[in-house]
Structure formats: structure tokens, C-alpha cells
UniProtKB/TrEMBL annotation:
<dbReference type="Pfam" id="PF01653">
    <property type="entry name" value="DNA_ligase_aden"/>
</dbReference>
<dbReference type="InterPro" id="IPR004150">
    <property type="entry name" value="NAD_DNA_ligase_OB"/>
</dbReference>
<dbReference type="GO" id="GO:0003911">
    <property type="term" value="F:DNA ligase (NAD+) activity"/>
</dbReference>
<dbReference type="Pfam" id="PF03120">
    <property type="entry name" value="OB_DNA_ligase"/>
</dbReference>
<keyword id="KW-0479">Metal-binding</keyword>
<dbReference type="GO" id="GO:0006281">
    <property type="term" value="P:DNA repair"/>
</dbReference>
<feature type="binding site">
    <location>
        <position position="420"/>
    </location>
    <ligand>
        <name>Zn(2+)</name>
    </ligand>
</feature>
<dbReference type="InterPro" id="IPR003583">
    <property type="entry name" value="Hlx-hairpin-Hlx_DNA-bd_motif"/>
</dbReference>
<dbReference type="Pfam" id="PF03119">
    <property type="entry name" value="DNA_ligase_ZBD"/>
</dbReference>
<dbReference type="InterPro" id="IPR033136">
    <property type="entry name" value="DNA_ligase_CS"/>
</dbReference>
<keyword id="KW-0234">DNA repair</keyword>
<feature type="binding site">
    <location>
        <position position="181"/>
    </location>
    <ligand>
        <name>NAD(+)</name>
    </ligand>
</feature>
<dbReference type="InterPro" id="IPR001357">
    <property type="entry name" value="BRCT_dom"/>
</dbReference>
<dbReference type="InterPro" id="IPR012340">
    <property type="entry name" value="NA-bd_OB-fold"/>
</dbReference>
<dbReference type="InterPro" id="IPR018239">
    <property type="entry name" value="DNA_ligase_AS"/>
</dbReference>
<keyword id="KW-0235">DNA replication</keyword>
<dbReference type="Pfam" id="PF00533">
    <property type="entry name" value="BRCT"/>
</dbReference>
Length: 691
């Protein structure tokens, strides 16, 4: 009997939706809008409601989540799911390659002097899953379990849109078990945690735990709401009349053609040098990847050689996991100190038993604020999980409750500033307590001085943390103006300060009198006024006097200055003490003005008008610079752009005209691509600037 037109339409919708799922979840390149996609699914649901007898297992309606289970069934794997041996340093990799090479040479499968060819790919930090397809149709999904037996999570697996319910392409095997990792992208993890927090539910510690918690849900509707992903890296049982490929890399491509996402970063390389090269390349961009990885996996590429090498106990001889230094480690929380910042913010800092994490030894980690400590239920004496990823400052993620001693002490916030004993306050809507001592507080004076001397402010070389502390402690510097009253003799009298270094400091201080207005404004440490805002204020007002006298409206006319920043600026200049210091600084020779092109007035000039040599190609355009440039530093390139009349901001939005991406550009480049913002490389930028 011929299919009715309606039934044909349904079949076509299945195909169409499958293709969109693939484009969206596997290729990360959607071809229709979410709304259009939803309307296709709605159409399917409507037809199926009329004709439930037509519903096929591959229908998108079958991803919606089934009735909650009471427990997962145990399933014995058709082919055991083994594990990988680990390597931690170059020596381990050399040894791995030597063992495999020796073995293959002994079997005359590798010639003397010949290097083994490997596939190198990411080691995903998620959960291993086995997906069983019979005649191309997904029939079961199981967790790894103990490697021999796992749990049947089919209902949950079906809700993951990057897992095809039906394989696509040619030569579909009779039986194919696809193995890979279920994980959560970092962006989805942060969104999930924000939502959890709003609901007052404990956040997940990391994307891996979030993925595990989401997959091991008895209610598959919960899994569905969690946006999990699947990346394929291998296979289990395979019954096929044709050989799918001769190599690991060829098999991965087959899996991709069947409809799976595979490691976006992978390479076929030769010998140890090739492996280590790949490792280093990925290590450098680890933080910018959309998901967590915990290392690189190397596999001998030729399947025949894999077979010849075989397995030893429960791991293959043909593969190795080259682990990165762990980004998360456990250690003892010995105490909680309170640090006073430049603006008086009191930050609880964990005092930790030293622990090697993310490649360095960590002894302190931020705990953010008292609410965070309470929410995470962190107590002194706990064993805690510490995370340090990339250049991000280390933080305490969570306590390990199983290891909590009976005498673990809950944290109590101090009643007064631990440094100056002034009262502390916590403004409504703010998470932090602040010392009210202002510049009476020694800690705030020290931090303000460190900030003022920093590179992007007055750039006083040699004035670091230790010296700032000494100068404040000896009461030689009570305000920024005092810095310019120091003498070589008084500085030389300080501990560990010889006449030479004292003179160097004096020279650096003298040099700072030539500071640019933007850096000077930044140096003042006005709350909410960062580098970019300082620069905008400098170009807009042209002098400190003009800035100090600006009305709230005038301030808010500057781009990116909202009510909070405007108020903070006015508050700063209303303070008598600050006026006094600025006055004294001017008398001491620090009164920078914005350098304008001759003939351009200093009042209310917009960025474009104040450009020193405007260039029509970039005039008034907004740029974001990211990644490492080779001809210039990013600051230099930004300065060139500004001189040509462009605006340079730090985050990518729809208003951004161009993103200039250097080497190892990460999230900003991705964001630009998402938003369809034009991306330039350095040469294109040079061309645009006519250089
Ligand atoms: S291959 C015979 N490739 O690492 C073992 N495993 O200890 C086959 N993993 O639990 C594993 N990324 O889930 C392989 N690209 C990758 C992987 C990977 C992550 C996990 C896997 C397993 C563990 C191995």
C-alpha cells in the first residue's frame, strides 16, 4: 500500500529535523532559527497526535523524555569498556613510544628507523558511554560502570540532540557500538549553575559533575533540560560486511559521517616529537576550548598495528592518555583570613595546606564572600577542592563532606576591619562587606599605592607590594602626593634599599610626571573606573579639572558611563581629601592634559573628533582586540586605532564593527563568529590603517 501524503510528509520532517540536529549539534553551524526548528517539531507532534501508529523511534518526539524510572537496569557490555594507561611527562611518552616500537619491530611490522604514526586527540573530561545501534537505529545507551557492566541510560541518552537516533550515510553496519564521552560545555554549565542558584539549589562543582548528575537522572525530562553533548572517539562491537576503515583517523571520519561529533582538535602525527608538539599546542589553548579536557589521547593510527600490540591487563598497549596537570585538587583548609582591598572590600581568603594544582603550588585561594562560603558550606578543617585553571586566580570550589572532621569550624565574618578596626558595612544588594576606614585604613592605603604605581597607571617601576607596604607603614606616604615628596635620602633609609635603588625609584617617580591623562585618571582608583572608562573620560573631558566639574548628565554622555559610574566619579571628586590630593599633585608637577591635535578644542570632544590623524576606514568604528599580535602589543594596536579615530572596547557585542584576532584568540573570537562580526587578522588591520 502506498504511503499517504501525510505519512510522507512526516517521514520527510524526520529527515529534515535530523539534518538540522546534525548541523546544529555536530557541526555547530545551524542553518535555520530556533523558532523555525520548533515549528518543524510542532508539525511532527501534530501529525503524530492524529496517527500515533506512524511514530518511529527516530522521531524527534522520542527525544522528549520518558516516564521516570525507579532504577537503572544493569547491562553487561558486549565488548568490555577498558581504560587507558596514563603518562604525565615527556619521559613517559618516550617510554610508551619505545615499548610500542620495539614490539612492532620484533613482529617485523615496523622497519628499523621508522616512526609510528599516531592519532592524537583530546581527552574529554566527561562520562564514557556506549551507544548500541542495530541496523542503524539507536537501541541502547549504557554507562561504563566497572567496564564489564554498566547501567542502561537509554531514555536519558535519547534526549541528547548530538546523538543520532538513526545513523546517516552509507554502509551502515548491522551492529555498531559507538563509544565516546557525554559532557557539558562550560557555557552551558555556567548557565545551569546560575539557574540553580536562583532556585536556591546547590550549584554543581564542575561541568563533569553536572554532566554526571544530569545523565544519571531517573527522570529523563530533567536530562533533556540540561543540554548535554556527546563526542565519539571509538567503538565496541562492530558487525559489518565491509571494513569501515584501516586507521583510527579513518574510523573517526566514518563516525562523523554516521552523524557523530568527533574531537574538533585532532592530528595524525609521527613519533614522539609529533605527539609532544600536539600536546603543547593544545595545552596553550586549553582554557579557550568550549569544554574541559584533562589531557591528550594518543592512539597508534593503523588498526592492524593496534591489533598486533593488543592489550595488557585492562588497557591497550597501542594507546596512552597524556594527562595535563590537574586543575582541581583536594587539600586541607587550615584557616580563613580576611584581606582588605583597595576599595575596602573584605575578601575571605582560604589558607591552604600547600597543594600542586594547575601547574603551580597554591597556598591561598579566594572564597569570594561570606554568602559563597555559607552556600558552599565550607568550614575550617575541611578537605576542600581547589581549582586553578589557566591564569585565573585559584578558588575553593567545595568541601569534601565525606572527609569532614567533627570539629570543623563554620566561618564567621569579622565584626570590624581586621587592619584598622573601623566599622564595616554591607550595602543592600552587595555581596561584600567593606571597611569604612577609607584612606585611614592602612591596608587600603597600601593597596591604593600599589594600584597607583602599577603599569597601566603611573607606571612607577620598582614600586611593588613590599615597598608600598614599607612606605605606608613608616608613614612616609600617607597620600599619593607624598610619593612626590620623597627624597633619595629618606628612601635609602628603608630596609633593603641601597642608594642605587633609591635613586632608581626617584627617577621612576620623576618620569611618572609625564603620565598620560587616561593613566592618571585610572591611577586615582575611582571605584568602577577601569582602564577603558578612564581612557574614555580622558578623551571626553581633556583635563582633570573638567572631569572634576562635570555634572552627572555630562558624565553619562560618555559612552559606557551609566548612573553607577557617574555617581562614583562625583562622589570621588566631592570628597575634600581627594580634592586636596589632586591639588597638591598639580603643584608637585602632576597635571596631565589630554594631548589633542592642534586646532581641536578640549571641551566635549568625541573620540572620533579627537583623533590625532583620523583615517576614514576606521573613524568611529568599534574594535575589539584579542589574542597575541606579532607586530604590536594589543595596547599599541589600540593606541594606533584610537589615534586614527576608532573606538577600542574590551568585549564583543552586536555594536562591535571589527574583531582583530591574533594567535590563540579564544572566547572573544568565538563570540565574534557567533554574532557574525567581521574578524580581521593583523595584516588586514595594517591594510585598513594604511600601514
Ligand atoms: S579511548 C581502551 N579516547 O578516558 C580505552 N578515551 O581511561 C578506550 N576518554 O573512561 C578509551 N577521551 O571515557 C579514549 N579521546 C578519548 C577519550 C577517552 C576521554 C576517557 C574514556 C575512559 C578514559 C580512559
Amino acid at each position: 500500500m502506498a504511503m499517504s501524503e501525510l505519512q510522507q510528509e512526516l517521514e520527510q520532517l524526520y529527515q529534515e529535523i535530523m539534518a538540522h540536529d546534525y548541523a546544529y549539534h555536530v557541526k555547530d553551524a545551524p542553518t535555520i532559527s530556533d523558532a523555525q526548528y520548533d515549528s518543524l517539531v510542532q508539525r511532527v507532534l501534530a501529525i503524530e497526535a492524529e496517527h500515533p501508529e506512524w511514530i518511529k523511534p527516530e522521531s524527534p518526539s522520542q527525544r522528549v523524555g520518558a516516564a521516570p524510572l525507579t532504577m537503572f537496569e544493569t547491562v553487561t557490555h558486549a565488548v568490555p569498556m577498558l581504560s587507558l594507561n596514563n603518562g604525565f611527562n615527556d619521559g613517559d611518552i618516550v617510554a610508551f613510544n619505545r615499548r610500542a616500537s620495539d614490539r612492532l619491530r620484533a613482529q617485523h611490522l615496523l622497519m628499523a628507523g621508522e616512526e609510528i604514526e599516531y592519532l592524537a586527540e583530546l581527552k574529554f573530561d566527561g562520562l564514557a558511554i556506549n551507544l548500541r545501534y542495530e541496523k542503524g537505529r539507536l537501541i541502547q545507551g549504557t554507562t561504563r560502570g566497572d567496564g564489564m557492566q554498566g547501567e542502561d541510560v537509554t531514555e536519558n541518552i535519547r534526549t541528547i540532540r548530538s546523538i543520532p537516533l538513526m545513523l546517516t550515510g552509507d554502509e551502515i553496519p548491522e551492529v555498531l557500538e559507538v563509544r565516546g564521552e557525554v559532557l557539558m560545555h562550560k557555557a552551558d554549565f555556567h548557565k545551569l549553575n546560575e539557574a540553580q542558584e536562583k532556585l536556591g539549589i546547590k550549584p554543581f562543582v564542575n561541568p563533569r559533575n553536572a554532566a554526571a548528575g544530569s545523565l544519571r537522572q531517573l527522570d529523563s525530562k530533567v536530562t533533556r533540560s540540561r543540554h548535554l553533548r556527546f563526542y565519539a572517539y571509538g567503538w565496541g562491537q562492530l558487525e559489518s560486511t565491509v571494513a569501515l576503515a584501516q586507521t583510527q583517523s579513518g574510523m573517526l571520519e566514518r563516525l562523523r559521517d554516521f552523524g557523530f561529533a568527533i574531537s574538533p582538535e585532532r592530528a595524525v602525527v609521527k613519533g614522539v616529537a609529533g605527539l609532544l608538539d600536539f600536546y603543547q599546542g593544545i595545552e596553550a589553548k586549553r582554557a579557550a576550548l568550549p569544554f574541559d579536557i584533562d589531557g591528550i589521547v594518543y592512539k597508534v593510527n593503523r588498526l592492524a598495528l593496534q591489533e598486533a600490540l593488543g592489550f595488557v591487563s585492562r588497557a591497550p598497549r597501542f594507546a596512552l592518555a597524556h594527562k595535563f596537570p590537574a586543575e582541581e585538587m583536594q587539600t586541607l583548609l587550615e584557616g580563613i583570613d580576611i584581606q582588605v582591598g583597595r576599595t575596602g572590600a573584605l575578601t575571605p581568603v582560604a589558607r591552604l595546606k600547600p597543594v600542586f594544582v594547575g601547574g603551580v603550588t597554591v597556598t591561598n585561594a579566594t572564597l569570594h564572600n561570606e554568602d559563597e562560603i555559607r552556600r558552599k558550606d565550607i568550614r575550617i578543617g575541611d578537605t576542600v577542592i581547589v581549582r586553578r585553571a589557566g591564569d585565573v586566580i585559584p578558588e575553593v570550589l567545595a568541601p569534601v563532606l565525606d572527609l569532614r572532621p567533627e570539629d570543623a569550624q563554620p566561618f564567621t565574618m569579622v565584626q570590624a576591619c581586621p587592619v584598622c578596626h573601623s566599622s564595616i558595612e554591607r550595602l543592600p544588594g552587595e555581596a561584600v562587606w567593606r571597611c569604612t576606614g577609607g584612606l585611614f585604613c592602612r591596608a587600603q592605603r597600601v593597596q591604593s599605592l600599589i594600584h597607583a604605581a602599577s603599569r597601566k597607571a603611573l607606571d612607577i617601576e620598582g614600586l611593588g607590594d613590599k615597598l608600598a607596604e614599607l612606605l605606608v607603614e613608616k608613614e612616609m606616604v600617607k597620600s599619593l602626593a607624598d610619593l612626590y615628596r620623597l627624597t633619595a635620602a629618606s628612601v635609602a633609609s628603608l630596609e633593603r634599599m641601597g642608594p642605587k635603588s633609591a635613586q632608581n625609584l626617584m627617577d621612576a617617580i620623576e618620569k611618572s610626571k609625564g603620565v598620560k591623562l587616561a593613566n592618571f585618571i585610572y591611577a586615582l582608583g575611582i571605584r568602577h573606573v577601569g582602564e577603558t572608562t578612564a581612557r574614555d573620560l580622558a578623551t571626553h573631558f581633556g583635563s582633570i579639572t573638567a572631569l572634576a566639574q562635570a555634572s552627572r548628565e555630562e558624565l553619562q554622555a560618555v559612552e559606557d558611563v551609566g548612573p553607577a559610574i557617574a555617581e562614583s566619579i562625583q562622589h570621588f571628586f566631592a570628597e575634600e581629601h581627594n580634592q586636596q590630593v589632586i591639588h597638591e599633585l598639580a603643584e608637585l608637577g602632576l597635571n596631565p592634559v589630554y594631548e589633542l591635535r592642534s586646532g581641536v578644542a578640549a571641551t566635549g570632544t568625541a573620540d572620533a573628533a579627537s583623533a590625532s590623524s583620523p583615517n576614514q576606514a576606521v573613524l568611529g568604528k568599534t574594535f575589539v582586540l584579542t589574542g597575541a599580535l606579532s607586530h604590536w602589543t594589543r595596547d599599541e594596536a589600540a593606541e594606533l586605532l584610537r589615534q586614527a579615530g576608532a573606538k577600542v572596547t574590551s568585549s564583543v557585542s552586536k555594536k562591535t564593527d571589527y574583531v582583530v584576532a591574533g594567535a590563540d584568540a579564544g572566547s572573544k573570537l568565538r563570540r565574534a563568529e557567533e554574532l557574525g562580526v567581521t574578524v580581521l587578522d593583523e595584516d588586514a588591520l595594517k591594510a585598513l590603517l594604511g600601514l
